[in-house]
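Reopening this one. Same input as before:
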Amino acid sequence: MRAGQGRVMLIAMRPSTRHARSGELSIAHQVIGDGPLDIIYVPGWISNLDQAWEFPKMVHVFERLSAFARLILFDKRGTGLSDRNVGFPTLEERMQDVRAAMDAAGSRRAALMGTSEGGYLAPARSRRAG
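Same output, byte for byte:
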């Protein structure tokens, strides 16, 4: 692969970013893949949907997951492409953002996968949904 060629490939794969409403806030999200299972990826402390596509290792994870599932990505309130200056969100507000991204993607049920701070939000969402 020639220098710069990989970057062109990553940009070509990037899905469009849409915005869902979570109360009065706008939550940025993307959907890739079309498998029978929905997976919502709950990001860690800092996220940015546009920047994630600049990191080949993240793109590799997205590719692998979207090969067998529909992957829903989102920026939490206060980060990335979602509304900023929101103070310190509660756990319940964070859960509302997960639900807003799922609703906007038309997902009724999803497996939740999280990293860092998103790791504890994923099981919290499961407990509240059950």
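So the earlier flakiness isn't reproducible anymore. For the record, The CA atoms of residues 76 and 82 lie 6 Å apart.
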